[in-house]
Amino acid sequence: MKNARIVFLLISFCFSAYSAHAKSHKLINQNLAGVGNKWQYQMHITQFPGEGTVDWWGSATEQVVGNEVVAGYDTAVFHKTFTITSPFSLTKTESANRYLSSDCLKGVHHETEEWVNTVRNNNPWELMPVWVDESDSNLHFGYGEYDGEHIPPDYTWYGERNAYITFLRIEQIAVPAGTFDCVVVLCRDEWSEPYDWHGYDETTYWMNPGIGIIRSDQYEWNWNPETQQASVSEFSTKLTSFCLSTDPLGTWNGTIDSDNYGAGSGTISDWILRCDGTTDGYWDIDIGGGSVVSFNPSGNYTYSDCQLQFSCSGTARESGYGTTSPYTLDVTGTIDGDTATGSYYIDFTNIYWSDYDTGTWQVGRELGTDWYDVEMLGENWLEVTCECSNDWCDGVDFDYSSTIDFVDFCMLAQHWLQDQ
Predict the structure, then answer these.
(1) Does the pLDDT value for residue 17 go beyond 50?
(2) Topology alike, domains 22-243 and 250-366
(3) What is the dihedral of CA 296, 298, 303, 308, to 10 degrees?
(4) Domain residue limits, the chain
(5) How far apart are CA 350 and CA 105, in angstroms?
(6) What is the pTM of this model?
(7) Tens digits of per-residue pLDDT, 356-405?
(8) How does the average pLDDT of the chain come out, rounded?
(9) What's the fold here for domain 22-243?
(10) CA 395 from chain center: how many Å?
(11) Is residue 127 within 8 Å of residue 98, measured between CB atoms?
């Protein structure tokens, strides 16, 4: 009891200290560079070529497709596709090699259909810090150098970039993908090249550290010394859907709508989807008359591009008369952040109550905290190897930073004994 009282006092102290002195906010979690992560955005571009304006509408898709070592940096390869749908149809692609360190997201290589930029002098250009302080205002956080090459390779150049960041506010916003709590920052990126080519862009980002960019509004200004004219454009995006490679991890609970027995006739509890591709849980369907059919599906699932598939067999039990029946179960679904929906087909070999059942299911990821989390936090304290394969250090690396530290301790305090 004494130890429990001490832990409670520590949690209370940490909660009050965190609430009173939380001046720093995380922008990027390490898991955002995971292979398989995918984001889709609606997109609007406005350009001001001299007099008048030109507007384009479309979508953008960004996906982490692999890992490469470039200039000595272990980078994640981000592939992006821009699709213009109005006022005409056009598709463009580009790729970027980015290095996510403990303090900053850095650009090492960037390739479009027209040009290539590669890090120069082992000095990558910095794109966004991992953390921002509320006091940051036009803070110079990044510098980088690059070599440029036009495609086809008919001329080359070199350039420099400087990055600045300003904390704006904490805000909850709604986009087509849902409603998210965000840290809002302004990033200013200035570039210069020989012969007075130069420019800058100012981008307001709505960042959710566990998901990435929720919304962005960019203003870009570029000077062309040959024409002695500046080009101006505005570029905005809003998240429409996302899929993270670590999504299946966790414990899920929800309901079943059976085609045979009606909406809300079933429940799913403690359905665990692990990083190693194994799963088990508890499914129940109320078939009426005081009888509930229960089965515990377990086996291996597959997960790709947000889509979940799972098949297994076992023995189902009916509580009313105590009868049993072998069954086969097929499950498909889509995971979207902390929620998932799908359909199922279950075939019973012994027809005691029904030869088969179909329906839909919907579940949410369990994010609650209790004394087990306190124990795991102590066992993993200051661990620096948290990842999907070890369940993010038994589920207590709450910010997916790969390290168990006071950030996780304070997050535990903030959500103490919450169900979700």
Answers:
(1) no
(2) no
(3) -30
(4) 22-243, 250-366, 367-420
(5) 58
(6) 0.73
(7) 999 999 998 765 677 878 888 888 898 877 776 676 787 788 776 677 88
(8) 87
(9) Porin (2.40.160)
(10) 17
(11) yes
